[in-house]
Write a structure and sequence with these properties.
Two copies of one chain form a homodimer.
Chain A: H1 2-17, H2 20-36, H3 38-55, H4 59-65, H5 69-84, E1 92-97, E2 103-110, E3 113-118, H6 123-134, E4 138-142, H7 148-165, E5 172-174, H8 182-186, E6 195-199, H9 202-211, E7 224-228, H10 234-246, E8 255-261, H11 262-279, E9 282-285, H12 287-292, E10 296-297, E11 311-317, H13 319-330, E12 335-339, H14 343-352, E13 357-362, E14 379-381, E15 389-391, E16 397-408
Parallel strand pairs in A: 3-4, 3-6, 4-5, 7-8, 7-12, 8-11, 9-10, 9-11, 12-13
Antiparallel strand pairs in A: 1-2, 2-16, 14-15
Organism (chains A, B): Reinekea blandensis MED297
InterPro entries (chains A, B): Ald_DH/histidinol_DH, Ald_DH_C, Ald_DH_N, Aldehyde_DH_dom, G-glutamylP_reductase_CS, Glu-5-SA_DH, GPR_dom
GO cellular component, one term (chains A, B): cytoplasm
Chain lengths: ~400, ~400
């Protein structure tokens, strides 16, 4: 692994200084290679699927592992889309003169070498590689062993793309998954790896965060809330509460707990119940909720559970302070929304809720790299330092100071 | 320690939502308390100095430990200055409409709880506490055991300041240094501490980075370079090479290695030598340097050594690529400067040197929070993620996404 690390470090200097056209050429040539190699990709994927069935993988895992023609086309379009995004690298801002005479600003620069650790979905190979490459970083990819043939075939397409653009092969490296200790090395080589992005289940991410000796951009849970304030517009409240829960159940920006102000709970909860009944969403309520509508009781554990399923916990709260306290205590600092027409309470919610995305009168479903205009995202960070929320190309860079002078020296 | 952490976490919510006036009141009241308690502070400091002499601390350590009237006045002025700085918290930027109708922007928010681990200088107590408080963070301070009486006396002043402003005492906590395991706990409580800033010698910082389970904003070395290009203006080159080395020797932004292009080495090195002779700076040169001027030979180790002393290593390089390679290999990614009138080489140096501050025609001595207009700094980061270079108030915050909507829901 230290050989992989050293090659990545060397390649990172070259990709960091590559111009936008060269990086785009590599991305588009990779897309062409994928289109040309569709049958080889399907064949490699079949080998993984056969092995997976033999190993007794669940249907859900086999589904994630499968490269359908649509998913292959999705990868091609993803590469084209990343090529069309603006290049953040080298962008200079805030070049202002200081009293000493120097002109000081900031330049956006790649992070260096990024390690991505992920599980069964082979399309992550292309998504992650394209975002890292466009943002001027070298990347080391460590996918799941069950996707090894698919990942190697995709890596072959990327290598073709790099070659067409005249970029070093080590800009994107796929780690041999038969090396069981590879992950352990990857997360403990600060001399070669600048940041780790784990993508997968909570267990994987917790394990990696625990053991890493390199900074980790991580996303653990999405326990998102909608709080319906006493002065909410009922129409907006019902639409947002429906959309945030039922648009998709298995995504991290789905609402998992609904908070309703006690002043409007008796009016709104029955309407909400009929909406959720229509979608087959199971409700688990606090005692006050249970007094107003017929539902299961919520346990203490429910308040911090990411269901990723048609289940919703519902709590009646006593005003804004109670709502904010609940969210900051039980939430996962991902995305939370208030529905209100009250200016002061909206403003307080915005400032005091400690989450990566805080919204007024909008569905939590908008918390997403595409909706935020980032083009694509490598993940949604629930960390506090560096990047919070959807991490796109800019989140894979940082800023250095640049100084233009005219021979200035500093007085004692 | 988990009690300290839990109190800090609770206090962090309160300081995060405090308005600018309240935070400034706490800072100015702390300054007043320090002025009123000057004799008590000197007395407490005397106890540390007596104990330090008994323990046989070096003169340099005793000097750092001493609170002279000037240093006490410096702390008072520092507090007043931080109070006068703009408050970064709550600042909203880039509120643009998205095609969905939502209006998306970013709000600057505190990091939460910051742990500061430092060595003998008691004035760090006030510097660190004031920056954390103003940026809306709670802070846990763990100073050196040799400064315990001074630090406790200063903590008393801060507590007075917090009380005057009606802020919770746990916004600033000073850890009892008799608890030898406190540092170990402090750096491994991600549930209570969001980021660690170690301030002190390289040994301390390396140890903490190694063991921390919390992100660390760190500054290891300052191995800074000046590269004199073939097309440098000789007057600027000599002035910058003199200033970057001789302004102060013991600071991290001092030049430690001078690189001179081989095309101008024979003309410039003799002039440089006479400048450094006048200052009593010892030169250690590569073989080509030794062929041109009389000096000691530089060893491989010299190229990566932070002397913090009147010693300079000098290398003759073959053009820009050689210079950039040397800097990225042996430097510490702190601050590096090129002296040149050549547009293309200046531009390449700016982009390709991978350091927190990269300069053209300016002395490395400018790499400093005050010169950069940050007002004050908690340290100079040589990390890649989050903040690079001098870390001021803004570096102690991050950004969350905020969304203003009008009842928007996301389509499938």
């Amino acid at each position: 692994m230290s050989g992989v690390g050293a090659s990545a470090r060397a390649a990172s200097a070259e990709i960091a200084r590559s111009d936008t056209a060269t990086k785009n050429r590599a991305l588009l040539a990779t897309a062409e290679a994928i289109q040309a190699m569709q049958s080889e990709l399907s064949e490699a994927n079949q080998r993984d699927l056969v092995a997976g069935r033999e190993k007794g993988l669940s249907d859900a895992m086999l589904d994630r592992l499968t490269l359908t023609p649509e998913r292959i086309q999705g990868m091609v379009e993803g590469l084209q889309q990343v090529a069309s995004l603006p290049d953040p690298v080298g962008s200079i801002s805030e070049m202002d003169y200081r009293p000493s005479g120097i002109q000081l600003g900031k330049m956006r620069v790649p992070l260096g070498v990024i390690g991505i650790i992920y599980e069964s979905r082979p399309n992550v190979t292309i998504e992650a590689a394209s975002l890292c490459l466009k943002s001027g970083n070298a990347v080391i990819l460590r996918g799941g062993s069950e996707a090894i043939h698919s990942n190697n075939a995709l890596a072959g397409c990327i290598q073709q793309g790099l070659e067409v653009a005249g970029l070093p092969q080590a800009v994107v490296q796929v780690v041999d998954t038969t090396d069981r200790e590879a992950v352990g090395y990857l997360i403990s080589m600060p001399e070669y790896v600048d940041v780790i992005v784990p993508r997968g289940g909570k267990g994987l991410i917790e394990r990696i965060s625990q053991d890493a000796r390199v900074p980790v951009i991580k996303h653990l849970d999405g326990v998102c809330h909608v709080y319906i304030d006493a002065e909410a517009d009922p129409k907006k409240a019902l639409a947002i509460a429906e959309n945030a829960k039922t648009r998709r159940y298995g995504v991290c920006n789905a609402m998992e707990t609904l908070l309703v102000d006690s002043l409007v709970a008796d009016v709104l909860l029955p309407s909400l119940q009929s909406i959720y009944d229509r979608h087959g969403v199971e409700l688990r309520g606090c005692p006050k909720t249970q007094a107003l509508i017929d539902c299961q009781p919520a346990t203490e554990e429910d308040w911090s559970t990411e269901y990723l399923a048609p289940i919703l916990s519902v709590k009646v709260v006593d005003g804004l302070d109670d709502a904010i306290q609940h969210i900051n205590r039980y939430g996962s600092h991902h995305t939370d929304s208030i529905v209100t027409e009250n200016y002061t309470r909206g403003r307080r919610f915005l400032r005091e809720v400690d989450s990566a995305s805080v919204m007024i009168n909008a569905s939590t479903a908008f918390a997403d790299g595409f909706e935020y205009g980032l083009g694509a995202e490598i993940g949604i960070s629930t960390d506090k330092i560096h990047a919070r929320g959807p991490v796109g190309l800019v989140g894979l860079t940082s800023q250095k100071y640049v100084v233009f002078g005219d021979g200035e020296i500093r007085e004692p």
